[in-house]
TrEMBL record:
Residues 93-112 are annotated as: Disordered. Pfam families: DUF7882. It comes from the Bacteria. This is ATP-dependent DNA ligase. It comes from Labedella endophytica.
Length: 112
């Protein structure tokens, strides 16, 4: 499990390394173009059963930390789905990887 640390470590979001790599690409592309947006996900039942959102902006510090050194293979179809979501009025909404071997990708878990 990797982490996306948001806003000077006041919030850290636990995300599987494979998912984190895909999110880093999508988030990085948006912020490089100075496009702000919401990033939202359905909370894992272990931290509640609601929904969480953070405002993503180039002025807010982000730190991507991975548990493993190896970069996972990138699923272009998933990047397209996530990028399309990020470009929508609702912002980037986490969706599980299509065609994954397990059929499930764990949602992010936030800790304050």
């Amino acid at each position: 499990m990797g982490k996306l640390v948001y806003a000077d470590a006041e919030l850290d979001i636990t995300i599987e390394d494979r998912t984190l790599a895909h999110l880093q690409i999508v988030i990085g592309n948006k912020l490089r173009r100075h496009e702000s947006f919401f990033f939202s996900w359905t909370d894992d039942p272990t931290v509640g059963n609601g929904r969480s959102s953070v405002w993503m902006d180039a002025s807010i510090p982000l730190y991507f930390a991975y548990d493993h050194r190896r970069l996972p293979a990138i699923n272009r179809e998933w990047l397209i789905i996530l990028t399309t979501s990020a470009n929508s009025g609702s912002g980037l909404v986490f969706t599980a990887e299509p065609n994954s071997t397990t059929g499930k990708t764990a949602p992010p878990r936030s800790h304050i």
